[in-house]
# Entry
Amino acid sequence: MNAADIKEKAFVEIKKIESTSQLEEARIRYLGRDGLVNQLFAEIPELPREEDRKKAGIYLNEIKLEIEEALAQRDRQLKKLSAKELEKVPFDITAPGIPMTGGLGSIHPLTQLRQFVLDTFSNLGFEEVSAPHIETDDYNFGLLNVLADHPARDLWDTLYLEDGRLLRTHTSNMQVREMKKRLSAQAGKPPIRVMTFDRCFRYENLDPQHSHTFTQFEILYVDHHVSMANLRFLSDYFLKRFFGEKTKTRFRPKYYPFVEPGVGVDALGPNGWIEIAGAGLVHPQVLRNGGIDPNQYSGLAWGFGPDRMLMAKLGIDDIRSFYEGDLRFLKQF
Ligand code: DAH
# Structure
């Protein structure tokens, strides 16, 4: 076959091609290393005249390019055709999707509660603050009236660092810190309305009710004439929002060294009264420790354990589930 015949034959064939694999076969047959075009290239050196060898080379190169272009064009046509074919396939938009393995992530129940609680109290004018997890003995205990040999320390055993600091046992370590911070920042005087929702730690024997790591929420409110009436209102307001409008709440006298008087705050659930929070009016000595004159100001402090509260509300029976990151637990929220 001479070059013109090969070109002719290639064009006819390429037009009839119906698939990309046929396209590839044709490419190899004509343009491959041992293909028809190369066979002609191989004959060029046999031409006697220099001039003819040159012309033949140029001619064959043109043919090669033309065949390449014909292949590419057919390729484009085939792709368009197959897109059209696809459009004809009926598409059911109501068909269920393919589920992602493991499903979507979810927001941790404690984080959901955190958002709810912070929202609720920020609407009442409380500002979120934080205090260190690794704390000095003073802020965690001493300045809160829990002196070195105070028996209440037995309730709050914790882990100690070699430098004498400790893992804070409650969020109450923010109280004196916040009072002092305000004074030195010359934002100066009360009112102080702060809150924190964060981790605490204790030296505990682990069981379904006890975890060495847990969470507390705490508010501190200092101003002129803060009283037990404010404490009642806040407790009621919050517990009704959380458990529902019909929820009943009550105060019981309870001792905490940093408040006077101190109360336990209970809510009436389906299984009777459950203790939710500890609270009270800030002890005058604690106000003094924070640089605030108890003759001018009074304060209230209120704290609760979100873990316990969620356990009561959602029927969770092991506090450790909150901290283990087990997907079988987390997926339920
Ligand atoms: N810090 C206490 C605890 O961990 C809880 C508490 C009691 C917080 C009374 C308060 C309070 O703010 O007034 O058991």
